[in-house]
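Good morning C.,

I know you're traveling, so I'll keep this short. The sequence:
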Amino acid sequence: MSAIRAFSSLKGASFRQQTPLRFAARTYASQAKTLKERFAELLPEKQAEVKEFRKNYGNKVLGEVTVDQAYGGMRGIKGLVWEGSVLDAEEGIRFRGLTIPECQQQLPGAVEGGEPLPESLFWLLVTGEVPTAEEVKGLSAEWAARAEIPEFVEELLDRCPKTLHPMSQFALAVNALQHESLFAKAYAEGIHKSNYWDPTFEDAMNVIAKLPNIAGRIYRNVYKDGKVASIEADKDYSYNFSKVLGFHENKDFVELMRLYLTIHSDHEGGNVSAHTSHLVGSALSDPYLSFAAALNGLAGPLHGLANQEVLRWTLKLKDTIGVDASEEQIKKYLWDTLNGGQVVPGYGHAVLRKTDPRYTAQREFALKHLPDDPLFGLVSKLYHIIPGVLTEHGKTKNPWPNVDAHSGVLLQYYGLVEQDYYTVLFGVSRALGCLSQVCWARGLGLPLERPKSYSTAHLKKMFGAN
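The tokens, ready to paste straight into the viewer:
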């Protein structure tokens, strides 16, 4: 890839969240910088940008808050800054201004015409820039070099009962790794706040690097023989993750992991896992603690756990009416579900009002790699039938599929059939978004998050209600 790369021409702006990166350029020396070196270069400029912006626009109103929003989970309230991505109701997610198809086109992959590497997406999330293949290769090597986990964490996982949910084990291990936190040590020794970003960045890199070994050990302990393969220093992150799981010999599965880890990485800052990591990190909890908290949020059935719930519903449908069910049989099953007071999982989204681009990316992967799979065929039928039924039902604002409606089918096809484990995969991916933002929160000196709350009695008094 050329050393002249796309970057925005807007004066004084280091990060162009809404500006396509392909419209401008930046020149690099022949020696590729590490991600940390590039992050350190960008910090002063971004700090100045934010300071100037707040000085001139700090009193501008982003929106109003209604009583319904306060009771309704703060849905739609504009109150967070999140650098990595923005979600548009009609267009879908943009990572630093790039749509998923644009990421697939522009971010370096491991094979020609293949899926982007998660390393390249993380570089994009941190810097706002599309990395070169050389920079991505360096990041792959750095994560592989940091991948080893302490013996006591291995023993902790090995002693967990197989009946303990994989997500509980995942959060437990990340919490235990906090023993290694460089930020916690530096803070205890009295580090100046202007340097908080440095050990935070190191912690974030270490957390991400160690997740495949943690997640792989959980999978091998709970579902297989307990033997965990070693990380290969010259391989990329997704390959090594696939290897510790035991699926690396299937190159298509490795490509699926590259896609999966990329598209599940970030979905702006208001979702539970992202917001939790931001909130906990704002207390100056180190990246281990903030990400462990995010994992506990991700484990909920209204967040990351939903992907396994969708698959279970789909498999139940298959077992009830058959994988070759007719359109009329499927419609009757759907109406029976809705009339029974249940929802159709995997359809609808809190923000999106169209088909989730992450669903589309997975569907295109399936059309390319497993077009004749019977379960994918059933999912395709659902894709064409469910929106019409939900529209006719009239109680769903968005009748289109979200990311959870497809991921489980792909994993089933390649033999990773253990549904309770699926959210762990989501967690490995979500680390890229959560921890890139934690680095920026410390780099920009963002304060403790502390919104104001009211009691129902106080609200009634405010509005003169009896």
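Safe travels,
E.
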